Amino acid sequence: MDQQTILNIIPDIEYDELVLVLNITRDMNEQQQQQFLFSYRHKRKSRNEMLLLTLLGFVGVAGVQRFVMGDIALGIIYFLTGGLCLVGTIIDLIKINSLTMSYNQRQAYETASLISAAYQNPQRF
């Protein structure tokens, strides 16, 4: 699979994420790569989407970005403390790139393992 195909399916993909996807799909056949890309496209979050969710903390709804990333306990703490008095929200704004990349990386590996499991044991799915 080449970069142009990935960019056609996921147009807002970041460079680091593109490299990750190329490495993950390197050993997959064409059909697995297509299934991976279509599944991963729906699971991943864009940096702008995470930025907007984090900015909700400044209007009184702090922690939504943490709920979306799966950090439920931290999301509850942020929600009840106003984003730890906005300090946690500001730190999340500063770290938005790494938070988004970390989330997308987990989703990519999870999607790859699901695709791999489906092709190794097709009778179970």
From TrEMBL:
<feature type="transmembrane region" description="Helical">
    <location>
        <begin position="50"/>
        <end position="69"/>
    </location>
</feature>
<keyword id="KW-0812">Transmembrane</keyword>
<dbReference type="InterPro" id="IPR007829">
    <property type="entry name" value="TM2"/>
</dbReference>
<protein>
    <recommendedName>
        <fullName>TM2 domain-containing protein</fullName>
    </recommendedName>
</protein>
<feature type="domain" description="TM2">
    <location>
        <begin position="47"/>
        <end position="94"/>
    </location>
</feature>
<dbReference type="Pfam" id="PF05154">
    <property type="entry name" value="TM2"/>
</dbReference>
<feature type="transmembrane region" description="Helical">
    <location>
        <begin position="75"/>
        <end position="94"/>
    </location>
</feature>
<keyword id="KW-1133">Transmembrane helix</keyword>
<keyword id="KW-0472">Membrane</keyword>
<dbReference type="GO" id="GO:0016020">
    <property type="term" value="C:membrane"/>
</dbReference>
